[in-house]
Amino acid sequence: MERAGIQFLFAGTIFSSAFLLFLVQPLIAKQILPWFGGSAAVWSICMVFFQAVLLAGYAYSDWVTRHLRVRTQAALHVGLLLASLAFLPLVVAAHLKPTGDEDPTWLILGLLLATIGLPYFLLSTTGPLVQSWVARTPWSARVYRYFSLSNLASLLSLLSYPVLIEPRSSLLRQAQGWSWGYGAFVVLCAGTTLLVAYRWSEALPAPASPAAAAAAGGEAPPRWSDALLWLALPALASWLLLAVTNHITQNVAAVPFLWILPLSLYLFTFVLCFESDRWYRRGVFLPLAAGVLVLCAFGLQHHIGSDVRTGLPIYVGGLFVLCMFLHGETARLRPAPRYLTRFYLMLSLGGAIGGAMVGLVAPHVLPAYYELGIGLTLTALAAVAVLRHRLWLRVSGVALAACCVFFLVAQIRSDRSGARHLMRNFYGALITFDVRRANPPSYVRLLSHGSIKHGEQFLDPLRRREPTTYYGATSGIGRAMAAAPGGPRRVGLIGLGAGTLASYGRSGDVYRIYEINPQVFELADSEFTFLRDSPAKTERVLGDARLALEREAPQGFDLLAVDAFSGDAVPVHLLTAEAMDVYLRHMKPDGIVAFHVSNRYLELAPVVARIAALKGVHAVLVSDDAKDSKWLNSTDWVLVARDPGVLAREPLRGAASPIALPADTRPWTDDFNNLLGVLK
Hints:
Layout: H1 2-32, H2 40-67, H3 70-84, H4 104-134, H5 145-165, H6 171-199, H7 210-217, H8 224-252, H9 260-275, H10 282-299, H11 308-332, H12 340-365, H13 371-386, H14 391-418, E1 421-425, E2 428-437, E3 442-449, E4 452-458, H15 476-483, E5 490-494, E6 510-515, H16 518-526, H17 530-533, E7 537-542, H18 545-551, E8 557-562, H19 577-585, E9 587-596, H20 605-614, E10 618-624, E11 635-641, E12 656-657
Parallel strand pairs: 5-6, 5-8, 6-7, 8-9
Antiparallel strand pairs: 1-2, 2-3, 3-4, 9-11, 10-11, 10-12
Helix pairs in contact: 1-4, 1-5, 1-6, 2-4, 2-12, 3-4, 3-6, 4-6, 5-9, 8-11, 8-12, 8-13, 9-11, 10-11, 10-13, 10-14, 13-14
């Protein structure tokens, strides 16, 4: 009975630490997101911080277990746990808010360090440190099952946040709840630490040298080749996770929350492979992995890889099989318990390297999403290293790698043959290409970001000023333009695309354009002519629109078009009550704020309408099926104005309709939003 209670204490400590570790990441990042304009770079910098601190935590666990006695470890760790309580509650202090002239990268890193640094560090140390203590107990043989448990806790935390926590509570309540949970963890972890110091105080740290290890227990130290595989296999699994996620969310289907599926399967393979050796069978997963490598590589240059009906199962299922192979082979190489902290340190370092290669390096060195093809090739070569003792398996691995390279080259050739320009940076990959439309025949130039089209233009000089896609005369924005005052207009555009809306510009008008991606400005100038053909004067603001508008003096816009909600990563900070305050401050009394809410997967019109009602302004929906035009897309635009008479002008009269509001719809704020609740 006593043994069961001690094991439960160990398990509870590890489970709670992993659950809180995964929970704090979206919680803290969402708190600071509106402060930095909601830029995607905020998430990237946060992930760099989390990976770095996690690695530091694993290094700490490895060092103390090899150099300090158990009682010294306990004294140090309990002291740090108590000190970390000073960081609670987990609410970012207002005085850390940026003033506008700082380097955001260093400010975010410093802000995270000051807010969550020590608690996050201690949570990251718990898994390997407690497992090193379990290794000194009579039931040390099952120590690696605790690693499986920690990944199960991470998986449950990942799924519970968007489904159970985020839709039901504000950020402040989430932060307070997490802080209480962390306080309970400190009590649990301190109790575990003191118990180990009391019951197993005579245990010595693991020997640091191979000779000492042999003399202490006869356990052979790991080979250097195995240590390299501890690093390489998790690095490739992390690489494939991010590369597959990029591919399915950018090139297959821009579905919100789709990223949860590959991450869940990635964590689930950890759970299976380290829970027991029964789940990973080479006879099953080696042939499956070989077939998956070929199919996934083939799909990168064939339409089955981008069609949602085939691409999703191919790449999501493929990721599961390949991660089972990579994590299964990693589990087969796990060392004796005395070396487990070094093992976990290498796993953590490998995961960080794989993530950095895809998340930080690839956007700067690859012109398009080629990291998945590279990752598949490297996985085949890793199989050669793992299976090096059998000639026919080595030869098969080399053949698979050659096959992946062949399809990668075909993908690159296909992209370059059809594209005029391929450009990529932190914000994604952009491509421009020309296509021939039929009935009647005409050539158009398109700008795409993965599966999302950001505009097109007729190449015929007589038609190149004609609005296309989502911006026709019968669309909500087209009607709002026509309803604007007859004199010179001041128009704000949030999101440029190909620059189509500039086609409505007249002599004397001023168009102020807010765009976060400098490459969009570059392509709009070099590949399209909407901006230079427009008689209107254009002003350009590079950076996040909300951040810029918050700092600017009132602009006096007649019309402000908010056009940034078509992809999977909806910039929520542009769709909150606080954002509406910013927009209204820049509008003339009879001005219109137009929100482009056309989205295949999200019902955003009620969100805008609820915020408008909260602010005492009026909102209508203009839906246009564009059935009378072959060049336009069906669209939904929500128009917001202080004066209801503005929304009843011609040509809005008859086209605008009221927006039904579900009774339980809460207005979105910087403190609360619920994307899951608006899924169609």
